[in-house]
Design brief:
By secondary structure, the chain is α/β, with parallel strands linked by helices. Helices cover 38% and strands 22% of the residues. It folds into 2 domains: 241 residues, P-loop containing nucleotide triphosphate hydrolases (Rossmann fold, 3-Layer(aba) Sandwich); 36 residues, no CATH class. It has a 6-stranded mixed β-sheet with strand order 6-7-8-3-9-10. Strands 2-1-4-5 form a 4-stranded antiparallel β-sheet, with no helix packed on it.
Amino acid sequence: MAITFKSLSYIYDEGMPYAHKALDDINLNISENKITAIIGETGSGKSTLVEHLNALLLPSAGSLEILDHVIVAKEKNKGLKKLRAEVGLVFQFAEYQLFEESILKDAAFGPKNFGFSEEEAIERGKKALNMVGIPESMYQRSPLDLSGGQKRRVAIAGILAIDPKILVLDEPTAGLDPKGAKEMIDLFVELNHKHHKTVVIVSHDNDVVYNYADETVLMSGGKVAYHGPTLDLFEDEKLINDNNLLLPQTMVFKKALIEKGFKISKEARTMDMIVNEVVRVIK
């Protein structure tokens, strides 16, 4: 397993009168080389969970194993800088991660921070920018002058330039138009399939989750309410109703077709897959 939580809890403002337990006895294994989605209502513990993955937060109780790193509550944990080079975290608001005077310098900052030479850092930055679709003609522009989608791409490039084994993305499609959202998700799928990155996505977009995630973790009240295959989650009406989840639109469409007599397989979850199934039936 790439990531293992063992009886992990986290308390904000521990010891204070207004302390709040955001995570409560989490036991969870996140698989290597898969796309895993983390979903749940606001306040369910999603963001707190992922902020443990590169030690932005340290557990109040329990432990966490990430690759070959072990983080234990109340202990002095070593090797956190190396861990942060192996687990790249992209925040929902990309502008929080952009601060250099040019796009290229921003993309190269991470490698320089982790000890690469100026020349190698620049090469890594260029390679990462190319991966996310930022052309060379834009390299000298200020990252703060970009559109929301472009800022998101540059922020992701800054993480990819470090070449992490695990990529963690908090609401990666938020605020993007449908075309931009699809391009962003296609990029993550490519990173997973071609570059064997373990991808963890926090999302409120159940269509993105249903269409692309191999496994899903459903958080509720700081606990894990479900962890398993994504398709099985959205077939469980009780879990859906108990956790106020909206069915993905592609699933609603598929159910309507099935009610009309079309035989559509459970594995057909993207619109393209569903259309291909309908064509097959008609033929």
